[in-house]
Amino acid sequence: MEIVDARARLRRPFVIVRAYLGAARHLVPLVAPAAVVFLPLALIAASALLPLLSGSAVVRNDELGIFGAEPRELLVWSAAVLVVFTVAQAVVFPATVVIAAGVQAGGQPVSARRALRMALRRLPSMLLLVVLAVPVFALVVAAGFGALLVTGSMVPAVFVFVGLALFTMPALLAVPAIVLEGRSALVAVGRGYDLVIGHSPSSTFTLACGVYVIPGAVSQALDVAMAGLHGPALMYASGLAGGVLALAGTAFQASVVTRQFLHRLALRPDPVSAEELDRILSGLPEAGPRRGVWFPLVLPGLVLPGLVYGGVATVNPFGWLETSETDVTAAWRDSFEAGIGAPQLGRGHLRALYPGPGTGMAALVYGGFRKPSAMFACADHTCRQARLRYAEAGPDQDLSVDAVGAALPDGRLVLTAWTWHRREWDSWESLGLLICDQERCIPPRDGSPLIPRHDFAGGMSLALTTRPGGGLVVATADQVDIDQGPRRYDDVISLISCADTGCSRPVTREVARVPSEGFAPGPQTLSVAVGADDRPVVARMDSRTGEIHVISCEDPACTRPHVTRPVAPQTIEPTEHSPRHAVAVAVRPDGRPVLAYQDIRDSAVKYVDCRTRDCAQHVTVTLSGQSYAPPVPVIDRAGRVLVAYQDARRPYVMLATCADGHCSRTAVSGMRNGPGDCLAMMLDRAGRPVIVWTDDNGLYFSDSEWALMVTTPLNLAP
Hints:
Helix content is 35%, strand content 30%. By secondary structure, the chain is α+β, with helices and mostly antiparallel strands. Among the domains are: 18-121 and 200-317, no CATH class; 419-428 and 451-709, Methylamine Dehydrogenase, Chain H. The chain crosses the membrane at residues 27-54, 74-105, 126-151, 157-180, 192-214, 234-258. Keywords: Membrane, Transmembrane, Transmembrane helix.
């Protein structure tokens, strides 16, 4: 190139515009160093990540996510990738500067091989520059954060951060000073400030805009443009955008830094500066013959990351868990804003989940203060069409007691309801049933009271389930005073059997008396299930000690019950608010029960695998630490035990598949706000587990953030 023409060209104003135009005209050779270095490193990093994602990667709504991976392993991998790519960038960026120097001066671009060789010779100085930049960046961030702490306002904090960041911009010119002039790191930093200080502050703003502001604005614009994309389209678009920005961004940033360095040097009138500029331009490697071989290499480098990223989520070649997930409350908010209205469902109202008519589902929910429980019905798992039907038994219904329910084969729900009866100088309550469909909740036509008379409904625990051949089983736990020594109470466990869903002729049988430490109301401390052989199993948890008794039956009428205690009582300090605790039972096809419960000491989730029908022999597996929501066990069509539960520490929604005393755990979703109080699970008509859970930050009023989520694993491994 002609040195005189190059000097005149470099003196021209509008550095950013000319730098970007030059980079756009010669984008392929400028991107070549990044493609040569970063693509193999990205392949190696992805290969090292795959073993860590085994059982942790989830394709959610055709989008890739990572839940449940070991944080320590991911941290080590992330740190290693950060170090390797930082060293690689210390080679790629100077090599791109070498190519950009020839382009901006009007010559032909230097070959990537020669530019990389020149950058490798200056790698020690570049690494020292990186080491110097780390504490400077930390100080700038700390100063901005300190201003925020002192003033309590974002405005002065932003001013401090931006001001200090602008002060460091001339240090970017140290890169061309190192690679083009051969200076050491410290001398190169001084060279950058020498070229800028004393001149117009436009140089600082030019570097800030060309290197950070404009690329950042382009990235934000792409994010906004992709905001409406979902599924494979989002995966392909984000992968393509990320690959293009990672490779092309380096080319444009290096062009601005190089152009500004040469521009400031060309504007100096002294002969020393002119001689230095001539030495830089004449010292560039020879461009050599022009070749078109870089285009087939660079083009895959631009599009391959997006194609691989989108293809992995679409094809799922590694067999990762695929899930469908819906933010139900988001759909409600959209309909409410459109004037359609939304169901009045609170963050802690969900109680249980059942299959509804067709592809729908139905949930038992707490109605709210001074409102009866309700049936919440959805047309499908998205719940965009939802109805709330209150279980109203009449003006004398006791609204202080929550209902329990079960699903009928036709998708309706059967719920319990207490009703007050008052006579002169006397009052009592009776327990009846309500049948709820999509339109209303009404008492069964030929129904009879399950319990004709009871004095204190709030002191009795209830559980309800259906029989395989039709009919219902209601379990009750009623505390009685035995007045014997220090232990004064027993829990009387009874079963109410009904041959039909209306319970026209209920049969009540006392099946067990288990010791109790006194009345302490605890939700979900009684559970009942019926096996394929029509024999019921009951689990009862003491709300004071966490002791769990299992009552199993040798026949459907439970004339010969067996009582075992798989969980012994715990010694805990009495507090005003006892830890969250609950128990749920399910029965496998061979009649052996399984339990999932929250430990009363720390709300840890545990699973009890009963080796015998009476659970006299069992294995206990701890699934997670503290959980806010009770775990839910179900038996799928293959006879596997599935347990849905919360891991509040991470926090994730987990699904355990258990057999022979061992459980494999899979994270099916991650919580954005925090662990909520509610979690329920059912099997849909296709036999897949459907998990409904609350994502809740635990705050109230204006700071409250919560959502009702529906997650369905689509390809759960057998």
